[in-house]
Amino acid sequence: MQNNSQNIQIIDIDYYIDSNRPIIRIYGKDDAGKSICCLVPGFEPYFFAQADNPAELCNYLTDAFDCIQKADIVEKFLPIGYQTKKVPIVKITVTLPTDVRDIRDQIRDLPGVNEIFEADVLFHNRFLIDKNLHPLKWITITPAPAEKELHPTNIICEEIITAEKVEEIDKIAHAPFKYLAWDIECLPDNGALPTPDKSPIILMSIAFSPEYKGMNTLVLASKKIDGVDKETECYDNENDMINAFFSTVREYDPDVLTGFNTDGFDTKYVVDRCKKINTESGTPVINFKIGRDNRDLNFRVFGATTSVSISGRIVADVLPLIREGFKLKRYKLENVAKELIGKEKLDVPPQEMEAYWNDPSKIHTFIEYSRRDSELALELLLKLQLLDKYLALAQVSGRPLQDVINGGQTNLVEQLLMSRFREIDRLMAMKPNDEIVEERERESNVVGADVLDPKKGLHCNTVVEDYKSLYPTIMMARNLCYTTVIIDKTTPKESMIISPSDGHFIKPEIFKGIIPSILEGLLDKRVATKKMMKNARDENEKRVLDATQLALKILLNSFYGYSGYIRARLFSLEVANSVTSYGRENIRNTQNTINNEIVTLTIRDNQALTPNESDGTQPNDIIVLLTPIYGDTDSIFIHCTDINGNEFEEEEFTLDMSALVGKKIAEVVTSKLPEPMELQYEATAKRILLVAKKRYAMWQFEQAKDGWIQKIKVKGLETVRRDWCNLTSKTLNIILEAILKEGDVDKCITYVQDVIAKIRKINDTRDEAFIAELTLSKTLSRPPSSYKNKQPHLTVVEKIRERGGQVPITGERIPFLITTVGSGYVEQAEDPAYVIEHNIPIDTNYYIQKQIIPPALRLLETFGVKRTTLEINQNQKGLFDFGKQEKEEQSPKKKNSEPAPIDKQPSTDNNDKGTKRQKSLFEY
DNA sequence: ATTGTGGCCTAC
DNA sequence: TCAGGTAGGCCACAAT
């Protein structure tokens, strides 16, 4: 190896033009933190065309267009369908990447040209695919000899290397990245959202990691302010401040730029403001070129969303990352910081900003407020490790990090498919145009999974089993792929796999599909990564590996969704429907196997035996009757009872026994399935309350290395829904705890009655903390004008607009309370801040009748509890200890962790903490 | 009273 | 919200 070769981690990739040829530019960082730009000349853009007469097309093309370097006939498979013969295709190599689109448009409609392929693959992605390189992985660069060196003048990295050769190498740890978070403050328009044509930017703040010239933060002000500290710089006016901001960014040279809602607000605001100032001055007084190629930042605006990118750097707005990663009721910086890192945002209300700015005694508070916002954004990104997953997805998929952050799963899947298609000489289809999308939309009819009817009510001792990666394993087991779908009607039946939805695929012995092969690779890699994780001693490495295995899991599960996605390059209803039809068949088969074949298991000598294995009954045998009581898509819940279908007595059926049963069922079912499909034992529910499809709660015990980990798991019920108020969630949590752990319905009734009593008094007490518990929220999911029906959150948006406040934008969650003002729930919705400020009465009846009683009753009616019982006004008994809910704990040596089945609990109280007699749960 | 729809959010 | 898929519960309200 040459000793002047250099290793870098790829951060970004693009190209530039030098002497009318494209040069690939790889931006990266070495392990000492030096920013390096690697130039790779010699890669040429190309695409493909299928023609009636390929030779004729070749001749025509080379004669007609100067920018076409070559037109050759190559042999390729077409994108969809199992094929045995390649077809002749014209490969058109052009001079510049932009020529691809030009030539494509000019030849598309020529007579004799049937179809164009791969003309919409961006040049830098083409390079990554063809060279088998992956962003965020490390490469070693062999420098070109001096005479071949390129000397671009605009690149502002610390070092520029012209590469002779680049090769990927193995290295786990990331390079030391530099992060910069920023934020702007503008003078609002009378408390409403500021607009760039009217409102100036007055403060800009920055937070650095690692520090910059000894500073962790820096606030720039657009006027002279007395008595500021050394991390605040004052300028004479707005342009000077903005220019200082951009030159600070250039000088610090961050790899990652972040902020809170910077893509959605700040970036566009600053750019618009700069343009306005530049236009008004007649000369460009502001230089906002902050790319590592010394160019402007790039915008792409799609309707309400803008995505920002800066060449050579990564733009990562934390707001969308947090939206995706955390389920919160609101996503204002204030809420997010408090919920996720326990930090307070400083408070300067928009209406008062002007006053703060103009008041010398308050302006320092304003400066600190601004500084805090950048600090919080940076802290969120780093502490929550928001980028980890995306770095790993870029590495595994081969797509540039900025695409991974801004885009969806489509890009990732397509990059993987394209790489593998290229290896076997298969063409990739172009992205569908609007016409094709509409057609697919009309035809699209994908049937999904089965949800088994739940046996509603309370059950003890239920084992939960699920299929490991069901859809990916189905695709592997049945060779489901675009490349295996039968298009030749003469294919003999014995060569085909026919799915329950009547999809036809070639057998893997004849040709193994690309998707199954990709999935197999991802699965193997995931197993290997998890193994490395176990052995890793370095915490940092462990973190990276954990992100990698998560990324692999995400990719594994993306292929099914992609196959039925109407905007996909490859779209196949036959594939999508075959996957789900096998899934439905599978869950039914599982249910039947348990019902009709296994039926019972015998527990003997710490083993679970099937009827075949047990060979009669022995004295200490415990016979367990298995009844599937619920299942959704890839899971099945099996109730374990005695032979007569009654719940076991306390201690008769232990958790350890349930694990034996669960594992035995998994083993028997798995043995009948094709590889690599696998049913696995997940956990045991000591008690489970099945309310409806997709709605249940259970007291779950999961087997760990040293004992059982217990928790209450709630699915689909109001507790986990963000469109119900906190009071509902808390009330239901108490009820669930009482039912599942203590079997105490009395307690539930008293509790609900007390909650109702407290609601009744809220307009007298005006307890603000309690009012906050009544706040509902809903997402404003589209522009207000496009709603067909009125909605409560729309009412609130309208009211805020009329009052001249900051109007929420599409995609925001809107909090509201139901007041007595107006008629009907929709009209009665009001902004909580306004309710407090103007002392608007709360509609107590709504909360009692709509928010508390129906959800409580849904849980309690199985025990015979009636609406009238809950409504009885029992003058306040006062046991309001909200918020003492158990999360997750190691089960303490069986102490009280195995109460008797509820319907058999003795009528005398054996519970050490209560004294009053409990009614049986079925006495109501 | 029952049925249909628009809307929201969740399970998987 | 150009950002993978379908199933499904429940609310409010309108139509029957």
Automatic annotation (TrEMBL):
Organism annotation: Methanomethylovorans hollandica (strain DSM 15978 / NBRC 107637 / DMS1)
Pfam families: DNA_pol_B, DNA_pol_B_exo1
PANTHER family: DNA POLYMERASE CATALYTIC SUBUNIT, DNA POLYMERASE DELTA CATALYTIC SUBUNIT
Any single biological process term in GO: DNA-templated DNA replication
Segments crossing the lipid bilayer: none
Protein name, per record: DNA polymerase
Region (Disordered): 880-924
Keyword entries, A-Z: DNA replication, DNA-binding, DNA-directed DNA polymerase, Nucleotidyltransferase, Plasmid, Transferase
GO MF annotations in UniProt: DNA binding; DNA-directed DNA polymerase activity; nucleotide binding
InterPro entries referenced in this protein's UniProt entry, alphabetically: DNA-dir_DNA_pol_B (IPR006172), DNA-dir_DNA_pol_B_CS (IPR017964), DNA-dir_DNA_pol_B_exonuc (IPR006133), DNA-dir_DNA_pol_B_multi_dom (IPR006134), DNA/RNA_pol_sf (IPR043502), DNA_pol_B_thumb (IPR042087), DNA_pol_palm_dom_sf (IPR023211), DNA_pol_type-B (IPR050240)
Domain named DNA-directed DNA polymerase family B multifunctional: residues: 400-861
UniProt record similarity statement: Belongs to the DNA polymerase type-B family.
Domain DNA-directed DNA polymerase family B exonuclease: 115-336
Catalysed transformations (reactions): DNA(n) + a 2'-deoxyribonucleoside 5'-triphosphate = DNA(n+1) + diphosphate
SUPFAM superfamilies named in the record: DNA/RNA polymerases, Ribonuclease H-like
EC number of this enzyme: 2.7.7.7
Keyword Metal-binding: no
Compositional bias of kind Basic and acidic residues: 883-897, 910-924
